[in-house]
Amino acid sequence: MTRELLEAFIAQKKSVLCVGLDPDVDKLPHAFPKTAQGIADFCCAIIDATAEYAVAYKPNLAFFEAMGPAGWSALAQVAEHLLQYPHHFTIADAKRGDIGNTAKQYAKGILEGFGFDAITVAPYMGRDSIEPFALPGKWAIGLGLTSNPGAQDFQLQPMADGRPLYAHVLDAYKNWADPGQWMVVVGATRPEGLAAVRAQLPEHFFLVPGVGAQGGSVQEVMQSGACQKGVGLLINSSRGIIYASSGDDFAEAARQEAKRLVDQMQMYWPQ
What we know:
TIM Barrel, 10 helices
């Protein structure tokens, strides 16, 4: 999906909602068996319930991989179901990062084999570990500034020039890839960091996790992270939407939570 097409879908819906699909078998609503098929059926039901409000979906591959070969089959079912919604951007949350032929095979399998529009990647091994993911018509989404406590271990450490390590990573992103194929992960629970990253990368799209169950604010993200032209954001909520209810009303509860977040987004929509 091109940037122009993604921006058109966002403008049409006035939504930047990305629904994260993290199907923990221990948290599935009662109607679903705790099996790989159960997580596939649950994810498909969530997609159907929230498609009116979402512009993107982000399956977290860890929850599928944990189920072994059957989990990969479940992921394939979810990916195929997403093809019924061609106006939605699809992200494989895989956080891959390796060099040479290994990276090429990851890219081929996930972006071409499963058909996802984008994949999350980790930049630690450098440019040659992430360039293979920037396939024609596809996106790579590089880690930028995350909101987990361990971000202090590396990302926020000052370098010789006094700037934190993550700022040097962002400089590299500007030189490695076109903003039309490259997004950056910035955590919603660091609004001051979000504003700093936006100042450094004024044109890039951001994938912003952490809204909802993790405590991030839609208002702060919209005000700190929107780019000057358009919006340039995908705000992800996972647990807050997909586990809005564990009862028979799980789908309607997910739909209502998605609507609530989109209503908040529209309150701060750039004029």
